[in-house]
Structure formats: C-alpha cells, structure tokens
Design goal:
By secondary structure, the protein is α/β, with parallel strands linked by helices. The protein has ten helices and 14 strands. A hairpin with a 5-residue loop joins β13 and β14.
C-alpha cells in the first residue's frame, strides 16, 4: 500500500512479510526514496526516476532494492558505507562463530537462505551526516543520527509534515534489536530520547504498517524501557544462579520463542551486550569458568 502523507511525500508500506521494510517516497523537484526494501510493491514506483536513494542503514531488508534505482545517487552514513563491504553485517550474522556451533551454511535456509546478491559489491556514491538538510524543493528532510540498532543508523525529520521516519526504531512487539558488534544499548536509549525530545506529531517506522499519531512519548518510552527491563531480567538471572551467556539466553529474556536458530543467536548476542553493560556498571563480573555472577554475590 502506498499512502499519501502530504502533496509531495508518500509512505510505501511493505506487504511481503519478513525481510522487507517500509520506505519513504518524495516526489518533488528532486525525486527521493529512503530505503529500498519494500518488496513487490516497488513495481508501482518509477524506480528509474529516483534521483537520490538514502539508505537509513545497511541491513539487507533496507537495501535489497538498491539495484532498481539505476539512475539514483545512493547515500548513507559513513559508518554504514564501510559496513556495506561486509556481507555478515548486511544479514546481521557477524559474530556467529563466537556464539554458535552450527555451520551457518547449513542453517541459512531458516531465513530463506543468504541471497547471492549479498556477496557482491554495493554502490554508495556519497555520505549523509547528523543535521544535514536534504533539499528536494518544497520538501526538506533533516538527517538525524540515531545509533543503537547499528552505529550509523539514521532517522529522518520531515519538518513541513511534522513527521519523523524513525526507521528501525521499529516499535514492533519483538524490538528493540541490538544483536551485533556495532549496536549499542546506551546509544539506543539516547536515540529514542532524542526522538521524544523533538515532539513530532507523527512517526513512521520501518516495520509497522501504520502512521503513529497518538501518545508518541508513551509509545517510544515503553519501547525504550524494554531495554531496561531486559537488563533487569539478566541481572536477576545471575543473582539467583551464576550462569553463562547460553544459560541466560535459554531463559528467553529477549524472545518468547526461538522458532529459528537465528533468534537464538541474536538472543545470545543481546544477552552478552547486557552482561557487558552490567560489568561496565560494576554490577556483574565474569568468573573463570565463563559464568557471570552478580558482584554482591561474589564479594
């Protein structure tokens, strides 16, 4: 579904389920798209007419349609530009060997396989940075650096529409996601607070097929506080029983079920993120056998 936001701005809601994302379309003096992963519905868009394609970050579901923008200047944050040379970062499996014993090639079918396109070079022509204004004519877009999901993740303020496209501050039931080395818990919390402080009338995410225009501080606050609650549950685990990353992840702190092995991988990665965060705060320490223990119990 393509929904008109204003005279020159549309939201393309993805309808193909897993591994696609919503995209923004600006039809102005400059034709611009933010992200390209909307899937089959892009057949309703003149992709060859796009002048600028902005990638909010490098994950496959956000860049999978880049090749359709044959005449577009492709831009992204400089950190994401570098990461697009690493196929494991595009499909969020960097660090697999640290947490998993299974051969990634033998289980990739659970995510529909690793697309062959992932392994080929990705064109990026220029970079965007925090505070930059992209001028499309009547439509202006301000780049907002919102790291956490990835370190170069960006959101986009449309001031004339009083709307922010918050991309993978996704507000879905299973988020937030920070399951890789370039994701950061503190950055994620700070980025959500940044969006709240801007007081937008409307927000759109990459993975909810709706425009959110009510109770935005509460919606964002609840999403942010899931991170804190997860950390509290991790701390409770090691307080009650010194445990390894795998033992804590088996308690399903992040996901209710691990229907596919990749959810278990990301659970372990995010649990490790929380343990590192708790160590930094002096609340947890790692002992010689690989278990983590609460500091008060260790002393």
């Amino acid at each position: 579904m393509i929904q008109q936001i204003s005279k020159n701005v549309k939201i393309i809601f993805a309808e193909d389920g897993f591994a696609v994302c919503n995209c923004m379309l600006v039809e102005d003096d400059v034709q611009l798209m933010i992200d390209s992963g909307a899937g089959a519905i892009l057949s309703d868009v003149n992709t060859a007419g796009i002048d600028i394609l902005v990638n909010s970050h490098r994950h496959w579901d956000h860049i999978r349609g880049n090749d359709l923008m044959i005449n577009a200047k492709i831009v992204t944050h400089p950190i994401e530009r570098i990461a697009m040379h690493d196929p494991t970062k595009l499909v969020a499996i960097s660090g697999w060997e640290e947490f998993m014993d299974e051969d990634i090639g033998k289980v990739s079918h659970q995510m529909g396989g690793i697309p062959e396109r992932i392994l080929k070079p990705w064109r990026v022509d220029d970079e965007i940075n925090d505070g930059q204004i992209i001028d499309c004519g009547k439509t202006k877009i301000e780049v907002l650096s919102t790291p956490g999901h990835t370190s170069g993740h960006c959101s986009f303020l449309f001031p004339n529409e009083n709307l922010i496209f918050v991309t993978d501050i996704c507000l879905t039931a299973v988020g937030p996601w920070y399951g890789e080395d370039q994701a950061d818990i503190d950055d994620f919390i700070e980025s959500i607070n940044k969006i709240i402080s801007l007081k937008p009338e409307r927000i759109i995410t990459s993975h909810r097929t709706e425009i959110i225009d009510r109770d935005i501080p509460e919606v964002l606050g609840e999403y942010r506080d899931r991170i804190v609650k997860r950390e509290e549950r991790v701390l409770d685990c090691v307080r009650s029983n010194p445990s390894t990353v795998n033992q804590i992840a088996a308690q399903k702190i992040i996901y209710r079920e691990h229907q596919i092995i990749f959810l278990l991988f990301w659970e372990r990665y995010m649990v490790k993120k929380h343990l590192d965060h708790l160590i930094k705060q002096g609340l947890v320490e790692k002992v010689e056998d690989g278990r983590y223990v609460a500091r008060e119990a260790a002393n």
